[in-house]
Amino acid sequence: MPRLLILFPCSHMGNLLIALPHLRTMLSAHPDALLVTDARYQALVAQSLPGEKRFLFYPEQALSSTRPLWQRIRHYLGFVRAMRRFRADICVDIEGEQKSATLSRLSGAATRIGPPRRHGHWFYNKSLEPDWQGHRWHSYASLSQPAAPAPAHYLPLAECPDSNARIRALQQMHADETCLILHVGATKTYKMWHAEQFASLCQHARRAGLTPILIGAGHKDRVQIARVQSFLCKPVLDLCDQLNLAELIALLQNSRAYVGNDSGPMHLAAACGIPTVGLFGPTNDDLWHPLSPRARVLRWQPCAAECERSSCARDSYPCLQRITVDQVMDTLSSLGAPVGMHSTAPRRAGEKLA
User: Which of 258, 303, 314, 319 could form an SS bridge with 269, CB 3.0 to 4.6 Å?
Assistant: First the structure.
C-alpha cells in the first residue's frame, strides 16, 4: 500500500468538523497514513478519532506574526522536516488553501492531489474538480481518497472524563444543568447578530427556566460579550477564554441547547447532538449549514442578488439583524429544548434587561 499524507491544517474548526468523516475514512483505508491538522484542535481530533495515533500537528500558534521571525522559521522548518520524514508516496489536500497547498509542494510525495487553484500546477500534479453544488461536506468528499459514505454527517465526539468532571461541578455551582450556551461573536462583523438581541435572548431564556452561558475566545469575542452584558441588569455567566477545547466539548455535551452566529462553535454544538440554532446573514447556508437533525438555520429573508458578504445592498444586513428573539425561542422549542413559556413584553427606551 502507498504511504498517504493527508493534509488538513485548516485553522477553522467548522471546516475540520465537516471534513473529519472523510479524514477518518482515508486513515481507515490506508494502513500507512499520516494526518496533518492544526495543533489547536488536538482535543477535538482525539475525541473524534479515539485510539488513533497517526497524527502530525501543524504549529499554527507558534507561527503567529507576534512571534520573533527566527522562532517562526525554526518551528516551520522543524514541522516540514517531520512531515518529509514520513516519506509519503501520495499527498492529498482536500481544503486547497495556500497553507496546505504549500505543504503539499514541500511534502516530497510523488503524487500530489488537490483542487484547482491559481498556479495549481506548481503545488499539485493531479488536480481534481470538487463538487461545488452542495454542502462543503460534498466538495471534501469529491477530493478524498476515499470519501466517507453519504449522507453528510459529523463524527460523534467521545466524552473526556476529566473535562466532564470540571464542567459538571461548574453546572452544579451555577446552572443546575439547565444551560443554554450562547456564542455571540464571530470572525466577521457581518456574521454577528446584534448584542442587544442576544441580551434579550438571555432574558427570555431565564424566564423559560434556562441559564444562559456565554462562551468565546479572543479579543473580538470579549468585546462582543461586554456589549451584551451592558444591556443586562444582571450579568450572565461568562466563560470566554476560561475553557480549553475539551472542556468546551464537555460543556456542550452536558447542556440543553445552543444559539450562536455562523461560526465553528455552532458546528461543534451540532456535532455534540444538542438542539442548535445557527443565525445566518449573508453567508451561504447551503454550503455551511450544521449537519444535524437537531440543528436549524435562521435567516430573516434571502439576501438581494446584488448583496455581498462585506457589502449589504439593503443596508445593515436585515437578513441577520431582523431575526427576532421569538423566532429563536420558537425554533429551540421545535427542536425539543425545554424553553417552556416565554414572554416578549416590550421595554421602555433605555431600560436595561433583567
Answer: 258
Closest C-alpha among 191, 171, 342 to residue 252: 171
What order do you get walking across the sheet with 237-238 strand by strand? Answer: 237-238, 211-215, 179-183, 257-261, 276-279, 295-298
CA distance 264 to 260: 10
State pTM to two decimals. Answer: 0.91
**pLDDT tens-digit series, residues 210-235:** 999 999 999 999 999 999 999 999 99
Alpha-carbon gap, residue 185 to 218, rounded angstroms? 10
Domain 4-143 part of CATH 3.30.450.20: no
Q: What is the pLDDT of residues 297-321, one digit of tens each?
A: 999 877 665 666 566 545 667 888 8
Please state which architecture CATH assigns to domain 161-334. Answer: 3-Layer(aba) Sandwich (3.40)
Dihedral sign, Cα of residue 46, residue 50, residue 51, residue 53:
negative
- For the beta carbon of residue 336, count every other beta carbon within 10 angstroms: 12
Task: Return d(Cα 194, Cα 303) in angstroms, integer.
Answer: 18
DSSP E strands: which ranges in 128-245? 179-183, 211-215, 237-238
Please tell me the distance from the alpha carbon of residue 148 to that of residue 55, in angstroms, as a whole number: 19
Same fold, 4-143 and 161-334: yes
